[in-house]
């Protein structure tokens, strides 16, 4: 905390303060829903919020082995239902050169065998938040909004909104990077950009787990631009 006085420090929402003031107010039922991508997806869909189309859900190894993987075109995502920190997510952008091959966002090739083995690991609980056997979701990959093509070529950005007592209080634009492997997850190396709730304009940014950055590369302008002042579309 070098260079930060007590008055400034109190302006930060630390992990301990967050846990003491906010997390304990979440109901057990609410946490169970939030910890499951499948349950969250159903709740959002019921409320009329757009969600990615589910292509297949696996609960057993038998289901993984019997599924005809060649039915999948490009643009799909394999993820654990109860994963954490972006671990266990495989993002596919298109078919590969040969049958039974696909290309991930980072350009790496995955095969039917690779995907089956990965699903087996998910089912065994390797990426589970609770270290328990899990299920697998295979969903369509959401395409990037044209505006965000200026900021990344690595994956689809998303917006995380924190809601407290039914009131949206904080928001962050998460931008995938080459380091994050196309995932909009800070723990994996993505960029998080604070968003002003009233205007939808970015204010500051960090990369990964806390490295503050001042500029981000604009692929359209082919130069670095300030991270603050970027207007989020349709805010």
Total domains: 2
Question: What oligomeric state is this?
Answer: single chain
Distance between the termini: 34 Å
Strand content: 25-35%
What class, by secondary structure content? Answer: alpha+beta
Tally the helices: 6
Number of strands: 13
The overall average pLDDT, rounded, is 90
What is the H/E order?
HHHHEHEEEEHEEEEEEEE
InterPro entries: ATP-grasp, RimK-rel_E_lig_ATP-grasp
Domain ATP-grasp: 41-93
Organism: Candidatus Shapirobacteria bacterium GW2011_GWE2_38_30
GO biological process, one term: SOS response
Verbal overview:
Pfam families: ATPgrasp_ST. Residues 41-93 form the ATP-grasp domain. This is Alpha-L-glutamate ligase-related protein. It comes from Candidatus Shapirobacteria bacterium GW2011_GWE2_38_30. Keywords: ATP-binding, Ligase, Nucleotide-binding. There is one protein chain. With 235 residues, the protein is an alpha+beta fold. The chain has 2 domains: 51-140, no CATH class; 143-235, no CATH class. Helices cover 20% and strands 28% of the residues. It is built from 6 helices and 13 strands. The chain has helices at 6-9, 15-21, 28-34, 37-46, 61-66, 112-123, and strands at residues 54-58, 76-80, 90-95, 101-104, 109-111, 136-140, 158-164, 167-175, 191-195, 202-207, 211-213, 215-218, 223-226. The strands form 3 sheets. A 6-stranded antiparallel β-sheet has the order 1-6-2-3-4-5. The longest helix has 12 residues, at 112-123. The two termini are 34 Å apart. The model has no long low-confidence stretch (mean pLDDT 90).
């Amino acid at each position: 905390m070098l260079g930060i006085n007590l008055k400034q420090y109190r302006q930060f929402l630390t992990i301990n303060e967050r846990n003491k003031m906010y997390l304990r107010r979440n109901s057990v039922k609410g946490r169970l829903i939030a910890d499951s991508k499948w349950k969250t997806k159903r709740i959002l869909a019921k409320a009329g919020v757009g969600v990615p189309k589910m292509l297949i859900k696996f609960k057993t190894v038998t289901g993984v082995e019997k599924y005809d993987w060649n039915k999948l075109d490009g643009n799909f995502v394999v993820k654990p239902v109860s994963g954490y920190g972006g671990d266990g997510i495989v993002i596919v952008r298109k078919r590969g050169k040969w049958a039974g091959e696909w290309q991930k966002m980072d350009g790496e090739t995955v095969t039917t065998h690779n995907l089956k083995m990965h699903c087996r690991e998910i089912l065994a609980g390797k990426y589970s938040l609770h270290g328990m056997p899990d299920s697998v979701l295979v969903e369509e990959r959401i395409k990037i909004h044209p505006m965000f093509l200026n900021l990344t070529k690595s994956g689809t950005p998303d917006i995380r909104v924190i809601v407290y007592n039914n009131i949206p209080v904080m928001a962050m634009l998460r931008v995938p990077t080459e380091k994050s492997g196309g995932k909009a997850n800070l723990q994996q190396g993505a960029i998080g950009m604070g968003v002003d709730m009233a205007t939808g304009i970015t204010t500051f940014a960090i990369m990964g787990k806390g490295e503050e950055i001042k500029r981000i590369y604009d692929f359209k302008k082919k130069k670095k631009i300030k991270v603050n002042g970027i207007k989020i579309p349709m805010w």
